[in-house]
Amino acid sequence: MDYRVTSATVEQTREWGKQLGARLRGGDVVTLSGDLGAGKTAFAQGVGESLGVKGPMTSPTFTFQQEYSGRVLNSGIETQTETEIRLIHMDLYRLQRPEEVEVIGVEDAFVEEAVCLIEWPEIAEDFLPESRLDVQIIGSGEASREIIFHAREHNWEQRLKDLNI
Ligand SMILES: Nc1ncnc2c1ncn2[C@@H]1O[C@H](COP(=O)(O)OP(=O)(O)O)[C@@H](O)[C@H]1O
Ligand SMILES: [Mg+2]
């Protein structure tokens, strides 16, 4: 099931990231695809903001991955608790061969205590968990963007159905 939204500005793209961030929990893996300048990093910054990440998030183009600390909210019937999580932001643009994905240890990020965001995920396709959420951003330059949330698993559909900004 795909959910399609539009974003007219970089602020709106960040806001959609924030909206998704509010629905994330430990163990989630989210891919971000789209052309250079589509807004993948802007979206990731919105996710970071909602997870309480402090400090600037930039694309880890040369280091492949950057880790931040954040927290997710767990809503119970009457209580809300917070869980500390690691936010791992990857940018695999500069990888050239799938074997390199193993060398840099991409799979180590797919753990319950981390949320993982992956820009340029294509080269890592064979290593990514089936249960991930794929986010595609279409458009670049000053044109508005279409953001497509591709739910690969039923539980994402439940979480995305009231997505709104
Ligand atoms: N609707 C929009 N959504 C996202 N970015 C936009 C939008 N309109 C213009 N931009 C600009 O496009 C660029 C997106 O950059 P960035 O998030 O780094 O892209 P990516 O990580 O996909 O390469 C920014 O300079 C931003 O200001
Ligand atoms: Mg980027």
Verbal overview:
The protein has 165 residues and is of the alpha/beta class. The protein has helices at residues 10-21, 40-50, 98-103, 154-160, and strands at residues 2-7, 29-33, 65-75, 80-91, 114-119, 133-138, 145-151. Strands 1-7-6-2-5-4-3 form a 7-stranded mixed beta sheet. The protein has one domain (2-160): P-loop containing nucleotide triphosphate hydrolases (Rossmann fold, 3-Layer(aba) Sandwich). It is globular, with a radius of gyration of 15 Å. Helix 3 links the parallel strand 4 and strand 5 (114-119). Helix 1 packs across helix 2 (40-50). The structure holds adenosine-5'-diphosphate (ADP) and magnesium ion. The site of adenosine-5'-diphosphate has 19 residues, from helix 1 and helix 2. Residues 7-10, 12-13, 34, 36-42, 59, 119, 142, 144-145 line the site of adenosine-5'-diphosphate.
- Tell me the distance between the termini: 20 Å
The radius of gyration computed from the alpha-carbon positions, rounded to a whole number of angstroms, is: 15 Å
Strand order of the largest sheet: 1-7-6-2-5-4-3
Instruction: Give average pLDDT, whole number.
Output: 94
* Main CATH class: Alpha Beta
Strand and helix order: EHEHEEHEEEH
Q: What would the principal axes of the Cα set say about the shape?
A: globular
Kindly state the percentage of residues in helix.
10-25%
**CATH topology, which one?**
Rossmann fold
Overall structural class, as computed from helix and strand content, comes to alpha/beta
Ligand types: adenosine-5'-diphosphate, magnesium ion
Domain tally: 1
Count of helical segments? 4
* Uncertain residue segments: none
The major sheet is characterized as: 7 strands, mixed
- Annotation, overall tally of beta strands: 7
Q: What would you say the CATH architecture is?
A: 3-Layer(aba) Sandwich
